[in-house]
Design a protein that fits this description.
70% of the residues lie in helices and 8% in strands. It contains 6 helices and 3 strands, in the order H-H-E-H-H-E-E-H-H. Strand 2 and strand 3 form a beta hairpin. The longest helix has 32 residues.
């Protein structure tokens, strides 16, 4: 019985990965169609900053689930594109805050409708109750795995 459950869970996990890839492909096609030079990972950083301005790099790393080195490269790329900048944290000079530039703020107006479109398409025919059950399911899975990670 446990083997069948594990097999079903493996299939479930594979489907989650496919859904994630579909989200990435949707956004990449929108970026390409509109001549926007961004990766999905850069978008994740921008989404954090659109929610909260002036965030420490470590906080962004925790939200987007990237290690510090990977995040540094993402922020460097966003800085070269003039979408973000690093500023000194007045409370702790050792820390840098990542803030949006004017261009980074303006990009939100262009990208957010695509994200809403993506969610509308992806959620077609799925009830809010089923989505809430899915959230609970993923929270349970994450909780199960957190207890085993040292």
């Amino acid at each position: 019985m446990e083997e069948k459950k594990n097999s079903t869970f493996a299939e479930f996990s594979s489907t989650v990965v496919k859904a994630n890839m579909a989200f990435k492909c949707f956004m990449r096609s929108k970026f390409k169609e509109h001549g926007i030079d961004l990766s999905f990972e850069m978008l994740q950083v921008l989404l954090c900053l659109w929610e909260k301005e002036g965030v420490k790099q470590q906080e962004i790393a925790n939200i987007v689930l990237k290690d510090k080195a990977s995040l540094t490269l993402l922020i460097d790329n966003l800085t070269r594109r003039k979408l973000v900048m690093r500023t000194e944290d007045v409370n702790d000079r050792r820390n840098k805050l990542v803030t949006l530039t004017e261009e980074g703020m303006q990009l939100k107006c262009q990208i957010m409708p695509w994200i809403h479109e993506m969610y509308s398409i992806a959620g077609k025919g799925i009830s809010q109750d089923l989505l809430k059950e899915g959230i609970l399911l993923f929270e349970k899975i994450c909780g199960n795995l957190k207890t085993t990670v040292v």
